[in-house]
Specification:
Blueprint: H1 2-20, E1 56-63, E2 70-77, H2 82-91, E3 101-107, E4 110-115, H3 123-140, E5 145-150, E6 153-154
Parallel strand pairs: 4-5
Antiparallel strand pairs: 1-2, 3-4, 5-6
Helix pairs in contact: 2-3
């Protein structure tokens, strides 16, 4: 039995060595075919357009379907500015078309945002809108808090009145308000 096993192992060794020996490269019979480089179709095959400006990735908060909280969406803007964030808030239905940034500045982690107009939509709607503005600006500009002004005055509606010391802060419980 030992002789049989030794012969079998020897035969397998010879076959494995024969299979691993290099063979000469065969010449292609049709030299007219152009060589095509293999493509994986992945990201490594993509060449970025050198003429395209880089985009800034931002977070935008907007009301969910049943108006019980906010959704967070990742989006992109050409340049991170207060107006570009306001434009995204308009696009997501938080602010009205035509809303413009009159002034925006930051100092010591506190931002002051002065808008041309802010819609009024009842207490729960205003709370969602204010939280969406606050979360969007505090997260993207890495602020501790945000002072919201409308035409240079503290935010005021029939339901919510902001005083000089009232600020919007990031609300971690934005999914359920």
């Amino acid at each position: 039995m030992k002789k049989f096993i030794m012969c079998f192992v020897g035969a397998m060794l010879v076959l494995s060595l024969a299979a691993c020996t290099p063979t000469p490269v065969k010449q292609s019979e049709s030299a007219t075919e152009p060589m095509v480089e293999a493509s994986t179709g992945g990201a490594s095959d993509k060449v970025p357009d050198p003429n395209v400006e880089p985009m800034e990735i931002i977070s935008v908060y907007s009301s969910n379907e049943d108006a019980t909280g906010l959704n967070q969406a990742m989006d992109a803007v050409d340049e991170l500015t207060a107006q570009s964030l306001v434009d995204k808030l308009i696009e997501y239905g938080v602010l009205e078309e035509g809303t413009e940034v009159l002034n925006f500045n930051t100092k010591d982690g506190i931002g002051t945002l002065d808008l041309s107009k802010v819609p009024s939509s009842g207490t729960s709607g205003e709370l969602l809108m204010l939280t969406a503005i606050g979360n969007t600006f505090t997260e993207n500009f890495e602020l501790d808090k945000l002072k919201l002004l409308v035409d240079g005055k503290n935010y005021s509606s029939g339901h919510i009145e902001h005083g000089d010391n009232d600020y919007l802060e990031y609300n971690r419980d934005y999914k359920k308000l």
